[in-house]
Amino acid sequence: MNRKKLQKLTDTLTKNCKHFNKFEVKCLIQLFYNLVGDVTEWQGVVIGLDRNAFRNILHVTFGMTDDMIMDRVFRGFDKDNDGCVNVSEWIYGLSLFLRGTLEEKMKYCFEVFDLNGDGFISKEEMFHMLKNSLLKQPSEEDPDEGIKDLVEITLKKMDYDHDGKLSFSDYERSVREETLLLEAFGPCLPDPKSQMEFESQVFKDPNEFNDM
Amino acid sequence: MLSANRNPVAKILGMDYNTMKEDPSILNILDKITKEDDPESEVKMKMAMLLEELDLHLLNYSLKHASLEIHLNPVTIKKDIELLKHFSGQGEQTVLESIEYTSDYEFSNGCRAPPWRQLHGEICYVLVKPHDVETLCITCCAEGVFLNGGKTDDEGEINYERKGAIYKDLVTFLKHKSAKFSENMSKQTRLTEEQQKVKDQPKKAPKKKEADALHKSITSSNKSKLENNQINFGKNQMTKRLEPSVNWKTDVDFKVRRISVRDTQEKKHGGRPEKSTPPVSPGRAQLVHKNADKTEEIPSESSSESEEDEEPPDHRQEANADLPSEYWQIQKLVKYLKGGNQTATVIALCSMRDFNLAQETCQLAIRDVGGLEVLINLLDTDEVKCKIGSLKILKEISYNPQIRRNIVDLGGLPVMVNILDSPHKILKCLAAETIANVAKFRRARRVVRHHGGITKLVALLDCAQNSTEPAQASLYDERDVEVARCGALALWSCSKSYANKEAIRKAGGIPLLAQLLKTSHENMLIPVVGTLQECASEESYRAAIKAERIIENLVKNLNSENEQLQEHCAMAIYQCAEDEETRDLVRLHGGLKPLASLLNKTDNKERLAAVTGAIWKCSISKENVTKFREYRAIETLVGLLTDQPEEVLVNVVGALGECCQEYENRVLVRKCGGIQPLVNLLVGINQALLVNVTKAVGACAVEPESMVIIDRLDGVRLLWSLLKNPHPDVKASAAWALCPCIQNAKDAGEMVRSFVGGLELVVNLLKSDNKEVLASVCAVITNIAKDQENLAVITDHGVVPLLSKLANTNNDKLRQHLAEAISRCCMWGRNKVAFGEHKAVAPLVRYLKSNDTNVHRATAQALYQLSEDANNCITMHENGAVKLLLDMVGSPDQDLQEAAAGCISNIRRLALATEKARYP
């Protein structure tokens, strides 16, 4: 990509993104094209990270392991549902990942956890997300009993209106009371350590930063 | 069923039924029932038991009547005597001095009386020596107990004739004969009762025996066993029991209640009757614990290191006891903590936080299901969220002293200390807060220090200044001020150990604390001032506090609304005001007025103690006293002399002692009626209080008008008796106070003589090895010796050799008062010569080389007196006194001039006389 085009793209994306400065946007764009590889851009053909490539990044860079959650994160990034994350979705998603406010993160996490997108996290969804969270005890008669119990515990803690499922307001209220519950059903945000590593790696040219 | 329950009776009805095994009827019934093994057997069994119960009731009832007529038998008497022997011996507490049989030989029937006397129903003869009456020779026979003719000394024969009324048993008899016996008997009762209460987990078996023994000793033996059983059935119906001794009654009742409680308990937990220790009701034990640990809870308590280190015994919850439902829920959560991934762990941690973690049941439940280990392990992981969740729980439950110890035992502190380095502020905060809770006892504080925790905590204080924060504010982060606050909180806990105070100082904590002191957040100021106040016990800190201009801010915060903050500020000022410059600083920054006004708020005793302490130390400076008088603090102080706890009194009296060094204040104290309460306090036992009270009374006694009041209240006698106090500080302080009393009392000589043995007591105090005591006693002797008659008496008690022995001292204070005493004592008989003979003169001459003019004056006066004896003059001359004295003649001090000149003149006159004799 030529320099002029990059400059232009940076300017537009910076305008739309409130958490990154110009330098950071530029770094992230460069990273994006590095990741996508040497694909020449054709007219009309969207280039971007497909599901597998994106999942790979999540796994390697941000240490996520849960397949289902990673799929959901991909959907969270892929705003236009076209099966790949393009450069503006990339910038937008990372701005939330790295700099998002609690409100933004809550909204994002709730969307990730609401598997069928009906606006509620149901018991079944919870069970689905938590099913691998406990070590299976061979002695137990029903291996799912622990999970079911965990779901009940979670509901007891978070379901303020007692309707047997979590609405966004239930979720929001619980998280405001206890921030730890933001990622209640699985890690869908980078953990602080890998976040710091990522940032220090990507935004590492301070001279250019000063120029701006 | 039978094989599984070998002893069904005991299991159902309690241990006491074990003793009834020999009763065949019950067993027979039971055997029959249990062998049948049909479904109805249970009903039948119950039926049988009810019948049995009824039977026993009837039996007991009839026995109660029958026992009124029952005669004494050898067994009862023996038990009685043995029991009394236990409580006999020398000393005030025992019931008797001794109790003995007249004959060691016991016949096979249990009697000790010779066979021909047994015919008369006599069982044995006892020699009893109560505390207050002569030895009694007593006959115990079937009809009762009576006094006989006594044992004849020469042949050891007993005069068997009855000399008094017959009593129904030994205890009743002795009670009539000896008042001391009945008095101590009731004391013993109370004593044993207390001992019982002290035993936390009493063994059942011995206690029961004890109780049995008591029963048997009082009532007839066969009855007691039945009665013990009656307890199980009748519970509280047994009020109208035959009770020969009123005093024993409380004791017996008490034990009976315990037994019945225990038995009912055992019935409940019928599963394990063989267990020797009955389950102590957990509720009560916890209550006791809570009380015991209250002191530990308050971080401002005290700065001494020794207070808190007794480790409370662990009381684990007994398995299968009545466990609360929380226990099971917590157990389940801990299981998820152990076997869950990060997500499940966070959910379990959050859910655990919904329990009332301030409640001991929950705290102990977490520990007892192994939750502490898991929580501490979580701190070692990389998962920030798990660490946060775990610390949030640990922070809450570490309010419990037992949990604190468990955390330390499990190695939790080093991990938390490491977390202090974390980049996440919330982790730093939580770790510091948890350390603040855990480090309430010495061992924990040591661990924190050894793992470098103090340096890291001090580094937290620095946070507030570092405003170069990265722009990205992470989710779980707190404000910098909060980090500093938590650091200060942890340092406050840690600062109770001496070595930690040192470590804080070395880590550069003082300037940082001083910096934080400038903020206006109360929750920040309290731990900061708390730490400073703890540390101010060290000299190095006081210097630093002065240098860092901390006093100014302490004074400022005295005006805060927060009582705790006021208290700690006052406490810090109290510690620092030992230093004169600091006292001036307090005044210059206007700290005296808030202190004086806080004196009027007497509801919070801790704060009052701190405020009065600060006033005391500040009033060592005269300018401050003037200010206090202006603020009418002295009147208020006098008002605080009554109805206050000792900690407050010590400081109030100390402050008054300092204020009364000035005439105006002495008058003020007298006019406010302060002398009476002061004199009343002379009878206390608190050492610190006595030192201050004697000083204050002494200061008042300088005023003749006040002296009249002190004399009228018998204050001088009280002071004099404090010379017998074991603490040297009290002795010395009392002696100093006596000086103005003797000076200002009317008929002082007569007054002093009226204290029987008083003069001998004073003279003997010269044998003390405490310099301050010696100096003060010398001062008292100087005053006593002003009266010729008294001087004669103390001379007889050997004051001259004792004073002479002290002469070789380097202590200027002692030298001065010793020289004064010697100079006074020279006024009697041949004392001048005697001092010479006891070699007091040569050392005195050396006093003239001291740097203290007071010593010079006193010594010159003593030498002047001594120089009237020729031999003393020779000694002085030999020791080079003349040259030294000649210098002193030029002194601006007139008394010194005069005494020195007089002494030289005496020496010179002797020289002239010798010359005249030699060359007539």
UniProtKB/TrEMBL annotation, chain A:
CDD domains: EFh. Keywords: Calcium, Metal-binding, Repeat. GO terms for cellular component: sperm flagellum. The keyword Repeat applies. It comes from the Eukaryota. GO terms for biological process: regulation of flagellated sperm motility. This is Calaxin. It comes from Rhinolophus ferrumequinum (Greater horseshoe bat).
